Structure to design on (450 residues):
């Protein structure tokens, strides 16, 4: 390829890990057209804004970023392809072009395998291209194998979309119906990642534990079985999955936590609320005690399992007593990590128009109270790790000279003084200190597992 054919792509990613994965795959799809990475949008021939619609002011954030990119595009005499991808693109569609006519491509999360064709069409037509349909073909069947190694840790999307229709959530509308990739393609992609140096894979899906597929003889597989197959891949040291729904936490999956040493003892299991009234209004189809029972079973299967969760405060109809139920569930369970949000009205979702909307002041107060408790639990969990010897998978160099950094089994960042040759391997580390956002350690022994 000549210098003039070489083009540069910059992708800005907002939102969840699925979007991080999608951004990587969009870069893969565009690589055959000559697009390599640009560190900054200023240097790019094409900029993709991969957007998130999950909470407040999503669209406003997109338009303000687009305003900034418009200036860059103008400074380059218009020679920059501007694409808006992801869930805001899906939700807003043509509205984006009305408010930002300098955008060239608007594409939803299900159509990015068609990006090369869209780029060609945008260049030919000189007008904008919109692709927000849910196409009949499966995009995963049309994606090339990733040419660029993802790194020591990698994401692998195995399931997309959601059929659960929680009252508050836009995902069923932006990502569409639940769809599982085939076991064979997932295992092929996993082996390919490992052959390129990946040592930890996080299986991704909006409802990852709703994944279902078939084995070689047509027998039905759930996520537990898929994890067992993944664990057979040589040199794959660690497996994780996110995000799960309590309703799909079946016994085989729970048993996988007992049986598979490579399955890390850390689980993100959103519960949203501890009040049965609110859980019912949210259409979660489980109670707070169902969640407690699942947690008990998981901890029986894997005693050192650390839990993470998502919470929403101020869902329509939530009273002080309901909120107290949430606080009680948090106290009863004990979380190593958690994300909590004020309920945000998403247009088109059932809760948006429901009676009993909670005032902003009440949401603020409840969020602060909940976050104080969750912070306390997280700090206690991290402090409890000091003095332990934990296996750490080293992923890169640290911020200071001579430092290397990695993750504990519980996803905590760990840094220590050590040789860069350890990157990509797992070693036992004694945790010596607990900083606000990381742990410090010293090397106990080089395990050099890979
Ligand atoms: N308002 C607030 N939080 C929300 N989430 C999803 N939709 C909303 C909403 N409308 C949160 C949930 C979910 C996480 C990804 O985002 O807690 O688990
Ligand atoms: Fe955001 Fe949900 Fe879309 Fe992910 S799937 S980008 S969290 S709206």
């Amino acid at each position: 390829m000549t210098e003039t054919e070489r083009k540069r792509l910059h992708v800005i990613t907002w939102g969840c890990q699925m979007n991080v994965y999608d951004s990587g795959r969009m870069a893969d799809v565009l690589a055959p057209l000559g697009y390599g990475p640009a560190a900054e949008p200023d240097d790019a021939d094409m900029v993709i804004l991969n957007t998130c619609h999950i909470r407040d002011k999503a669209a406003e954030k997109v338009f303000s970023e687009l305003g900034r990119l418009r200036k860059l595009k103008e400074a380059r005499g218009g020679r920059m392809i501007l694409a808006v991808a992801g869930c805001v693109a899906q939700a807003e569609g043509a509205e984006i072009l009305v408010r930002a006519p300098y955008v060239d491509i608007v594409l939803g999360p299900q159509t990015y395998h068609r990006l090369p064709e869209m780029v060609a069409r945008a260049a030919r037509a000189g007008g904008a291209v919109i692709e927000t349909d849910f196409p009949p073909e499966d995009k995963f069947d049309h994606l090339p194998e990733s040419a660029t190694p993802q790194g020591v840790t990698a994401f692998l999307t195995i399931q997309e979309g959601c059929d659960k229709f929680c009252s508050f959530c836009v995902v069923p509308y932006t990502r569409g119906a639940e769809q599982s990739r085939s076991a064979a393609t997932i295992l092929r992609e996993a082996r390919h990642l490992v052959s390129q140096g990946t040592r930890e894979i996080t299986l991704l899906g909006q409802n990852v534990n709703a994944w279902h597929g078939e084995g070689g003889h047509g027998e039905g597989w759930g996520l537990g079985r898929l994890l067992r197959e993944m664990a057979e891949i040589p040199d794959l040291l660690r497996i994780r999955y996110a995000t799960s729904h309590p309703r799909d936490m079946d016994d085989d999956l729970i048993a996988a936590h007992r049986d598979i040493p490579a399955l890390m003892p850390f689980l993100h299991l959103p519960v949203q609320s501890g009040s049965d009234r609110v859980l019912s209004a949210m259409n979660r189809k489980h109670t707070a005690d169902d969640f407690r029972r699942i947690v008990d079973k998981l901890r029986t299967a894997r005693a050192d399992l650390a839990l993470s969760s998502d919470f929403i405060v101020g869902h329509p109809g939530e009273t002080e007593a309901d909120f107290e139920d949430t606080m009680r569930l948090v106290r009863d369970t004990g979380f190593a990590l958690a994300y909590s949000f004020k309920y945000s009205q998403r247009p088109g979702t059932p809760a948006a128009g429901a009676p009993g909307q909670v005032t902003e002041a009440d949401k603020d107060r409840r969020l602060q109270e909940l976050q104080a408790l969750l912070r306390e639990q997280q700090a206690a969990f991290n402090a409890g790790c000091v003095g332990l010897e934990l296996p750490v998978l080293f992923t890169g160099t640290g911020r200071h000279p001579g430092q290397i950094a990695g993750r504990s089994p519980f996803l905590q960042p760990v840094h220590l003084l050590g040789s860069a040759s350890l990157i990509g391997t797992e070693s036992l580390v004694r945790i010596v200190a607990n900083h606000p956002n990381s742990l410090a350690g010293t090397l106990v022994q080089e395990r050099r597992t890979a």
In short: The chain is about 35% helix and 25% strand. The first helix runs from residue 17 to 30.
